[in-house]
Amino acid sequence: MARFRETVRSLLREHLLDTAYALVAEHGFDRLRMSHLATAAGVSRQTLYSELGSKDEVGEALFQREVERCMRGIELSLARHPGDLRAAVAAAVEFALRLAADNPLVQAMFSSSVDHGMLRYLTTRPEAAFATAEAAADAYAAGAWPQIDPASRALAVQAAIRLTASHVMQSDTSPAESARRIAESVARIAGYPAR
């Protein structure tokens, strides 16, 4: 019975986040109201607050969910290039940049205020997102490239994540060229010889 309740609660949470995603993509995070979200999701405001908490917690949950989805795509991109660190990182970074450019939630983030909108999860409060991304990427890199010492690997992963986030926010080159540059930086940090 407890497992059934957990499943129902998980499905409810996903439904609420899917509804919030649609509202934020259409109207922006600044215009999101918890009462509108409850109505659109077909639940009471009490249920909404019990499941997701405050509007800030909704924003953080939406952003964290997108980071996790992005990391799954990045892992698939990395896996397509076993043994070739540069090609793997370039493919993963290009995937992330193209995903961000096409993602309605990311676009809504950029149109929101830094202080009260979702943009702060990438600028002034990025710790949770970076921690998730760095942990996933480091775990993958440890298995794929065990010859890289842990300190260099950690620095390379951190550089890849933070440079990619920087290029998501503002890039002066195409996704492919940004990805190539980031991959070259990561390879050098990891101790791979220059091409």
TrEMBL record:
Species: Streptomyces similanensis
Pfam family membership, one: TetR_N
Top-rank lineage group of the source organism: Bacteria
Positions of the HTH tetR-type domain: 10-70
Cross-referenced Gene3D superfamilies: Homeodomain-like, Tetracycline Repressor, domain 2
Chain residues forming the annotated DNA-binding region: 33-52
Name used for this protein in its record: TetR/AcrR family transcriptional regulator
Matches recorded under InterPro entries: AlkX_C (IPR040611), Homeodomain-like_sf (IPR009057), HTH-type_TetR-like_transc_reg (IPR050109), HTH_TetR (IPR001647)
